[in-house]
Amino acid sequence: MPKLRLLPHLQRANIRPMKIRLIYPKWPKLAGQREFHLPPHGPVAFAATVPQEHELKFTDENVAPVDFEERVDLVCISCMLTCQVHRAFAIADRFRRRGIPVIAGGIGAALHANEMTDHLDSVFIGEAEGRFAQVLDDLVHSRLKPRYDYLDSPAPIETVGTARRSVLDRSLYQYRGIQMVDLVHASRGCRFNCFPCCVRYLGGRTFRPRPLERVVEEIESIPNNRLFFVDNSLAQDKQWEIELFRAIAPLKRSIISHPIEDDEEVLRAAADAGAWWVYQAVFDTSDHIRQRVKHYKDHGIAVEGTILLGLDDHDEDGIKRLVDFLLEIDLDLAEFTVVTPFPHTRIYDQLAAEGRILHRDWSRYTAGEVVFKPAKMTPQKLDELYHYAWTTFYGQEPQELKMARLLKTAMIREQAAGTSHRFGRPRRRRAPVAAPAE
Question: Would you kindly state where each structural domain of the chain is located, as residue ranges?
Answer without folding.
Answer: 18-157, 181-281, 297-414
